[in-house]
Amino acid sequence: MLPRLLILALASATAYAGGADLYVPRCPSTATAKFTTQIPSGNPCPPTTVDLCYTNKDLSLVFTAYGETNYYFDPTQETNGDIWEYEVMEAFIYKGSDAPQTYLEYEVNPNNVTYNAFVYNPSRDRAPGTPFDHAFITDPFGDGFTVNTVLNKSKGTWQSSTTIPLALFNGENPRGTVWRMNFFRTITSPSTYPNQQLCGWKNTGAASFHITKPFGKLIFV
Ligand SMILES: *[C@@H]1O[C@H](CO)[C@@H](O)[C@H](O)[C@H]1NC(C)=O
Ligand SMILES: *[C@@H]1O[C@H](CO)[C@@H](O)[C@H](O)[C@H]1NC(C)=O
Fold first, then answer.
1. Residues flanking ligand 2, CB < 6 Å
2. Residue 74: which pLDDT band, with cuts at 50, 70 and 90?
3. How many angstroms is it from 150 CA to the middle of ligand 2?
4. CATH says 22-220 is which class?
């Protein structure tokens, strides 16, 4: 087994020395982030994929949840409600190469309801006693976001297709730019709520999504 420091050095070399975790192409080609494990335990999660591509104006994300059995949401919750208490798929998005202190938190649930906020997390890990705040995007569809959600209960899937305006990140015509992102999925059911399985692309090492150093590095090509 490699010493921990060496592993950390290798991990940061992968993240920063020119390489990327994902090379995002212009639409209609896509690159896929796939994850199958829980945060932080690494225990199995039903698979989740996020297919990404860009146009000059928008980032396209197609979230697909496999092995879904619960489709659990609160039907009274609307845009920017606390949908993360139930089942959601999420993207944390930042344009830039460093570990962000502010980033978009985007979520969608099986009821096609979305959560859209910029997070202010100056400690980068939601450290106790430090600020942690959300600035909501109050009119996402007026701003140009789109979303469409299709459930297939016989197949055990739900798929949400989203576009997010790149202008939100001062990121139009993004070819050649570097981004940091992480993707998540929460799983719960009427019998386990409010406990959740937390599934994620890059393991944050804690039962929290708001730890930005492990975010993946993406290059738009
Ligand atoms: C999902 O919500 C968006 C925004 O309100 C709407 O445009 C779209 O038609 C909805 N799709 C479904 C399948 O409900
Ligand atoms: C759901 O998936 C099944 C199996 O792949 C497929 O036959 C069916 O057409 C799908 N239903 C919808 C509504 O897409």
1. 152, 154-155
2. very high
3. 10
4. mainly beta
| Residue 33 bridge partners (DSSP) | 50
pLDDT digits (tens, 9 = 90+) for 124-159: 999 999 999 999 999 999 999 999 999 999 999 999
**Can you give the pLDDT at residue 19?**
87
DSSP-derived secondary structure for the chain: ---HHHHHHHHHHHHHSS--SEEEPBTTS-EEEEEEEBTTT--EEEEEEEEEEE-SSEEEEEEEE-S-------TT--TTSSGGGS--EEEEEEESSSPPSEEEEEEE-TTS-EEEEEEE-TTSS--TTS--EEEE-S-HHHHT-EEEEEEETTTTEEEEEEEEEGGGGT-SS-TT-EEEEEEEEEE--TTTTT--EEEESS--SSS-S---TT-EEEEE-
Q: What tens digit of pLDDT does each residue of 10-50 get?
A: 444 344 456 899 999 999 999 999 999 999 999 999 999 99
- Most distant CA atoms of the chain, gap in Å: 52
**Per DSSP, what are the bridge partners of residue 146?**
163
Give the residue, out of 63, 79, 112, with the most ligand 1 atoms within 8 A of its beta carbon, to mutate for a pocket test.
Answer: 112
pLDDT tens per residue, range 186-216: 999 999 999 999 999 999 999 999 999 999 9
Q: Is 111 in the pocket of ligand 1 (CB under 6 A)?
A: no
